[in-house]
Design a protein that fits this description.
alpha/beta, 13 helices, TIM Barrel, Alkanesulfonate monooxygenase, 17% strand, 14 strands, four-stranded mixed beta sheet, SsuD_RutA_monooxygenase
Length: 356
Amino acid sequence: MAVEFVGMIRTADTSEIRPPSGPAVDRDYLRRFAQAHEEAGFDRVLIGYHSWDADGFAVASYAAAHTERLGFLLAHRPGFVAPTLAARKLATVDQLTGGRLAMHVISGASDTEQRRDGDYSDKPARYRRTDEYLDVVRRVWTSDEPIDHEGEFYRVAGARSEVKPVNGTLPIYFGGSSADAYRVGGKHADVFALWGEPLAETAEQIAAVRKSAAEHGRNPDDLGFSVSFRPIIGRTDAEAWQRAHEILGKITAGSSGAMLAFPAAERGVGSQRLLDAAGKGEVHDRALWTAPARATGAAGNSTALVGSPETVAKALLDYVDIGVTTLLIRGYEPLEDVVDWGKDLLPLVRQELANR
């Protein structure tokens, strides 16, 4: 049994407890951050997408030039680049990185953020567009002949690409928690990405996505699942909880300007689910802590796993036991946490899996 570990890199040293203090693109920090993930034993790193942030294609290319094995999970929002062009851009980066690229598809939860880049479509339309977009991208990658397409959002004639992904296609990760996300992700995703909810609720979502995959004629067992957490570890459980409350104090004090908030009415279903979990209790299962989600309005993956490395490793394995194949973890002290996890957390999880 194997599990994939995914981290997350950014171009500056910032988090909910660290306000930006330098340039938006710090090349030295980005290089060290990517290399720290590789040295810690991560399989991939996520490169996020925001309407105010650095271009992910360039970030992936730069980080790949300074690493050897690390994979990259490039977040991408359909709608801002034509699918034919996106297919070529993604294939080019994959070729230049030696097959280390995967695509993380995000349809967009916030109308406000979409409009910052000129997209005024509503959320149902965004999911329909994503569905059509991925149909075209896959056809460009896999067809040896020019393709034609005419749909609701895109019309192309004679589209072709001389550049293909190294392995013929890229792994597609797909984020979302709504019925539309289940429908489109069940059709297209290789890995369906969820935020860190309690075990029972996570199992319910896995079942819903598998059902959608079967309705699209796919084998549900072929679909992987990712769950995202913010681990907070210490030498002991007590030390970890002390650190956790210190972090929460900094979050609630509003010490960071790194997160750009959106109206509460525009929260995605995933954010609302995290807040619902927080409403039911602050601690769930073995070590899941919802207080940071409440404090941030669940603006992103914001639930923590708190405890010693042994406790957090067991908590991660609880999710593996219900069908999770990818563990996406990122820290409040981003680079330092990666170094600690590489020494104290990832080896424990992998050793347990090897012993099974």
